[in-house]
Please model this.
Amino acid sequence: MPALWIQAARVIDPASRRDAAGDLFIDQGRFVAPLSAAARKRARRIDGRGLVACPGLVDVHVHFREPGQTHKETIATGSRAAAAGGFTSVVCMPNTSPVADNSGTIQLMKDVISRDAVVRVYPTGCITVGMKGQSLAPIGSLKRAGVVAITDDGECVQSNDLMRRAVEYARMFSLPVMDHCQDYSMTQGAVMNEGVVSTRLGLRGWPHAAEDIIVARNIILAEQTGAHIHLQHISSRYSVDHIRRAKIRGVRVTAEATPHHLALTEEALAGYDTHFKMNPPLRTEADRQALIAGLRDGTLDIIATDHAPHTDYEKDKEFDYAPNGILGLETALPVCLDVLVRQARFKLSRVIDLMTRRPAGIVDLPAGTLAEGAAADLCLFDPEETWRYDAKSGQSKSSNSPWSGRELRGRVRTTIVGGKVVYADGRITA
Amino acid sequence: MSWQRRHLLTVEELTLGELEQIHATAAAFKRTLSRNMRKVPALRGKTIVNLFLEPSTRTRMAFEMAAKRLSADVISLDGASSSATKGETLRDTAENIQALQADMIVIRHAAAGSPLYLSRLLNIPVINAGDGAHEHPTQGLLDTFTMKEHLGSLKGRKVVILGDILFSRVARSNIHALTKLGADVTLVGPSTLVPAWFTHLGVKVCHDLRGALADAEVVMLLRIQHERQAAGHFPSLGEYTGMFGLNKTRASWLNPKAIIMHPGPINRGVEIDSELADGERSVILEQVTNGIAVRMAVLYLCAGGQPEQVSPVA
Model:
């Protein structure tokens, strides 16, 4: 593998507070000090003019559907979608088929990852056996098998006692517990946010209180046990408020927001388009603004996509019957540039921090930095290029994106993993 | 003003002019229903498919009756006999019906938004005969048609809708029709079944039955579906009847000329006392008869007919 010389890019590395025009050098899979003149001659040059060079993006919340649901996505196609979106490290949720509640399934995933993945893919394990919320999964064995966190994502542990034991137990292994916060007793049959729009559309409402109550439960348990609980895809302004107050007290909770909850509201459901159906549901403009404010003041720690592929024929149904979830990896960066940088006036380096160093820190991944000696995972993007996203011609196996057919601004040009160019100008090169 | 719309999916999307055109056309068809020869040739040669994926007696029969009065051929399919029970998707079922050369499809479905979804897939007109808790547009149209027959203009008229509003598609279609026609609408019922969000649709929400019924000129009762979704939203049917059931005393609070309506099916002794349901102020069976004329109007207009061309030619 030749050395790489990225020339004259705007280099942004939140870890070192670097945001300046300059060059980057990669050799033997790592970022290195400026190469000698002789070495530069032999290096492969990448023209960085007009582009931003930042650490490869990190997403702690994706669904790659392998094993068992490979008609929707595979580790191969999901990791290609990640590369196309500038992501170099992703964390997979365990709601596969079978669910990842044992070390054998984790080993199977790791074998497929090492064979097929073009970016770094990390598995998580279940909190409970079969993700049924009734008894603890073998969390120690899962840790030994290599999971970076445990979660029943897609399901939420309803028993407060079981959740308490799970976080207490996982703390022994320094494993974060990620929770999808939803009180099922309040969301039976619910398909969208409860409020004026659900009333008008005649759809069953999912009240924000069902999230807030579990967020509050998790804050209480994190405070009592000292364990780290990561709150997935926060959607409610009341949850943001609970988290803010908990953090002031020093409680070990972290939280994520998705690009779709930052960009869209329940108003998008007026036409019953199932590409806007996800769980938790899109909420109100006040909730959307609260999520942005939460990211601004650090209440919400990171951006995560909840990349959730489903086939066309699964999504092409009556609204009530379509599955929850949308793609996220290939659109996350331009959507966040739009919502956070251009509309909410975040500094670009701040948004990159929310998508690199900080998510890596949540699950302690070796990623999110351009420091010399670190693994050379890099995202090179044009922040201004406008392009039309067509989900069908994207890298994911599925195309369930509300942004398909829309014009986006900001486009990933090159993705590098461990010094290897895996994606360049629209094509997977790994 | 000519009729442009091919589908009837909601009352919400209709303009006041369109709503009045449907009513005027229904009035013309209603006159043909009292003749000896009640059939008109308007849709001769057309085939209408009633796709009823949720149980219905009144609505389905009224649509069949309306189509037959218009000389159309009618095929009715219900959920149990359709391929939906074999796992066929709604898209495939509907595309097959279109491929079988139906000229129009009337759909009743438990999932809100299904008629809109079908209208985007098919080239033939789609008529919503009730979609989940969303809308039941022909019911809203026939109810307001019936009110106008008794009251004339509905502008400023006080209308109370009483019962399970949250899960009612009939309530929503009536709310949209009545607010377009300028009526003063109040929704009444237990707070768990009449959430304040409805005020955003331009109506009042009230939980005090006496205050709401005072001087009302129309009271429309809705069935309490205690065995289904509404379970858990209030303690018992007995308590409901005790708090909100319409009985003789409560009916005396109404305007003396007020009419009592119900889209059916009625639970006698629950939301309404039998003697009121059968009493002289009740227009419940008139609603059913008007349902034929209104559905004739909707089928005729959406099939491409024009309001001024309704001819009583046998």
